[in-house]
Amino acid sequence: MPELVAGVEEREEEVVVGLPPSSSMCRSTRLKETIDVLSDPALMDQIAESKAFYRTGRKGFSYKDVFGEPFTPVKKCRTA
Predict the structure, then answer these.
(1) How far is 40 from 30, CA to CA, in rounded Å?
(2) What is the pLDDT of residues 13-33, one digit of tens each?
(3) Is the alpha carbon torsion for 36, 40, 42, 47 positive or negative?
(4) Which of 2, 35, 71, 76 could crosslink 63 through cysteines, CB 3.0-4.6 Å?
(5) How many helices (H) and strands (E) are present in the chain, helices listed first?
(6) Is 42 a member of any domain?
(7) 52 neighbors 38 (Cβ within 8 angstroms)
(8) Total number of domains in the chain
(9) How far apart are CA 35 and CA 7, in angstroms?
């Protein structure tokens, strides 16, 4: 284990320890995406503005209105 950890920073790699690889990587990816959103001030401002807009009872555009095609959900990660 020490050898594995020693070069991680040099090679800019990640090591996830604990769960089976598929579930830990999925969880790790979701956590990184959450951190990316929470650490982006402009995106958090937009989210706050959107919440305020919808709290007033107004309606927005549908996914299809914006992108011209129906929304297709991304396959979720398996959970234990």
Answers:
(1) 16
(2) 666 666 566 666 777 888 889
(3) positive
(4) 71
(5) 5, 0
(6) yes
(7) no
(8) 1
(9) 24
